[in-house]
Amino acid sequence: MSELFGPENCFRGQHVVSADQFDLGSLAQLMKAAELIRKVPGMFHGMLRDKILATFFTQESTRTRLSFEASMLRLGGGVISTTDASKTSSEVKGETLEDTISIISGYCDIIVLRHHRTGSAKLASEYSLVPLINGGDGRGEHPTQALVDLYTIWSQLGRLEGLRLAVVGDLLHGRTIHSLLKALSLYTGNEVTCVSDPELSLPEDLRTSLEDKGLRLTATQNLVDTVRLVDVVYVTRIQANLFEDKCKEESRAQGKNPEDVEVKKLIEEQVVEFKARTAGKYILFPELLPQLEEDEGVVWLMHPLPRNEEIPRSMDSYPGSIYIKQARENAMDIRRALLAMILGK
């Protein structure tokens, strides 16, 4: 217990803003802590009594915000929260993120931040008096989702090396995939097949970085053949909301106000065109199920959620579909473990 949750554990008092921070030792500690919390949750009730979590989200969220808040409450702590902060916080009045975080960090013991601007979590951490966790920063990263994903894979396969993984969908804007692949690059022998349209492929700088670290990457648009060759299929929705945020960022960079009527109309048209170009692609139709079932072993189907059309509900009965457990159970185990390790006594 003291090794995992005492002052010497590797997450104690730390910000968590990028998967680049992780190493094999810290991930092994976290997996062990999550497994312990899963098996004997009663041991941890009251561990974070008198601690306060602040959630500050300028983008939509269901699972990330609620699972962090529920995790804090399960550990005996309290929660203060603002939702839709882009409309309800002082950001509307022109307050900078730096000022906001500097003040909020005096109200709590830890912050979970989701912000529409890529790189915002790192910036915010530099002004926070308390540990800050990145709950998603624009098209950048979502490091705690990567932790959930690693824990899910490890729970099902018993290993995190020598994996054959397919990542499917919007790999350009998909911050969950960016963080997951960074984490997987720490382990040896992993092969990743990237299934997407060219315009939604991994950012080139990320691809280069991952390959330099030894992660083997291949690109294809053929989902049907790919699912026969892998252990895990990790699917994401087309991130139209993040594409819209990118359009707004580009407008600001050009000195334009995204809320100006004409600019707003142009952005809306760009989003409509983007949705039309990407609609109906890379869907795991039920017809793929017999093919999956005929292969040796089971192919594990994962998704960070929310899902749209890419995994129909008819796939839920497939034995390898673990995306509900991934979000409902594993996310709670990992986030309780992370909060306990950062703040525990």
TrEMBL record:
Q: Which GO terms describe its molecular function?
A: amino acid binding; carboxyl- or carbamoyltransferase activity
| Entries under InterPro entries matching the protein | Asp/Orn_carbamoyltranf_P-bd, Asp/Orn_carbamoylTrfase, Asp/Orn_carbamoylTrfase_sf, Asp_carbamoyltransf_Asp/Orn-bd
> Which UniProt keywords are given for this protein, alphabetically ordered?
Transferase
Any Gene Ontology biological process: amino acid metabolic process
Transferase keyword on record: yes
Q: Which residues form the Aspartate/ornithine carbamoyltransferase carbamoyl-P binding domain?
A: 14-154
What sections of the protein cross the membrane? none
Q: Which residues form a coiled coil?
A: none
Q: Name one Pfam family in it.
A: OTCace
Q: What positions does the domain Aspartate/ornithine carbamoyltransferase Asp/Orn-binding occupy? A: 161-341
Specify the superkingdom: Bacteria
The family classification in the record reads: Belongs to the aspartate/ornithine carbamoyltransferase superfamily.
Name of the molecule in the record: Uncharacterized protein
Can you name the source organism? Candidatus Woykebacteria bacterium RIFCSPHIGHO2_01_FULL_39_12
